[in-house]
Design brief:
This protein is an alpha/beta fold. The protein folds into 2 domains: 66 residues, Chemotaxis receptor methyltransferase CheR, N-terminal domain (Chemotaxis Receptor Methyltransferase Cher, domain 1), CATH 1.10.155.10; 184 residues, Rossmann fold, CATH 3.40.50. Strands 6-2-1-7-8-10-9 form a 7-stranded mixed β-sheet, with helices on both faces. A 3-stranded antiparallel β-sheet has the order 3-5-4. A hairpin with a 7-residue loop joins strand 4 and strand 5. The longest helix is centred in the N-terminal third of the chain and has 15 residues. It is globular, with a radius of gyration of 20 Å. It starts with a helix and ends with a strand. It binds S-adenosylmethionine. The site of S-adenosylmethionine (SAM) has 23 residues, from loops. S-adenosylmethionine (SAM) binds next to loops. It catalyses: L-glutamyl-[protein] + S-adenosyl-L-methionine = [protein]-L-glutamate 5-O-methyl ester + S-adenosyl-L-homocysteine.
Length: 266
């Protein structure tokens, strides 16, 4: 099934309004692939008919499902391990003297937030720390809340952490791992769109991970998101961005303290 140029533009305009992400014409095959199943499920033999009906009905639930489908949620445990090494060293050099709050903005299905949680559990044990993950996509937020992953996702997880913080599924759950309850209790997930004001009660963080999401935005969009996120970073807090996502040339009030690690200043 293929999309006409007009339908592609209409559906990607809706996606851009919601997410802020502009999908270029080169992404047309990807969009066609991702919408195929939804069109079939809705009883349409042609993708164009599905998009037409979707935009005309503007049913919030179906629009959310389409936005969920069009976001790229790739993530894995301990992705870009240099950041975890950096954070571990920081906690050893300057152990926090109060509660430590960490935000995984654009947390996808939760692997990043749980990797941070494992590191904090190792370094801070039962001291006061917590992690919150947020994402635009309700589908991945729900996955993160389940904290249940196919076992093959554990390939980047050191064996010791796998043993200590994950339960091996049995019976119906064979082949899956569940994050251990004590860790789950310290990590929460909710929906938040980085293109909009953040929830009022989000609060301030010592550490923010904003990784592998800025790449989808143009420079003004990136700058707006980083400013919005910085409003939630404590004065001495640290912001981690993806290693492919330089903040140079965006004229932001930050200074670099390590590769893809920033603090207020500049
Ligand atoms: C590639 S994943 C990155 C996940 C994780 N941070 C990592 O580095 O592995 C990008 C995530 O950004 C989310 N996202 C895209 N646009 C967003 C927006 N406007 N607000 C919040 N999250 C957004 C997507 O839903 C997706 O889960």
């Amino acid at each position: 099934m293929t999309l006409s140029t007009a339908s592609f533009e209409a559906v990607t305009a809706m996606f851009a309004r919601v997410s802020g992400i502009r999908l270029s014409p080169a992404k047309k095959p990807l969009v066609e692939g991702r919408l195929q199943r939804m069109a079939q499920d809705a009883g349409h033999a042609r993708l164009d008919d599905y998009v037409h009906a979707l935009l005309e009905a503007a049913d919030p639930k179906e629009l959310t499902r389409v936005v969920d489908k069009l976001t790229t949620n790739e993530t894995y445990f301990f992705r870009e391990p240099e950041h975890f090494d950096h954070l571990r060293q920081l906690l050893r050099d300057q152990p926090p003297d109060g509660p430590l709050r960490v935000w995984s903005a654009a947390s996808s299905s939760g692997e990043e937030a749980f990797s941070i949680a494992m590191l904090l559990a190792e370094e801070l044990g039962r001291r006061d720390w917590s992690v919150i993950g947020t994402d635009l996509s309700t589908a991945v937020v729900q996955q993160a809340q389940r904290a249940l992953y196919p076992m093959e996702r554990a390939r980047n997880l050191p064996q010791a952490l796998l043993k200590r913080y994950c339960l091996r599924g049995e019976g119906d759950y064979a082949g899956q791992l569940l994050i251990q309850r004590a860790l789950r209790e310290r990590v929460s997930f909710r929906c938040a769109n980085l293109m909009q004001e953040m929830p009022r009660d989000l609060g301030q963080f010592d550490i923010i991970f904003l990784r592998n999401v800025l790449i989808y935005f143009d420079p003004p969009g990136k700058a707006r998101i980083v400013r919005r996120v910085l409003a939630h970073l404590k004065p001495d807090g640290l912001l981690y961005t993806g290693h492919a996502e330089s903040l140079a040339n965006l004229e932001l009030p930050v200074r670099s303290v390590a590769p893809a690690v920033y603090t207020h200043g500049g």
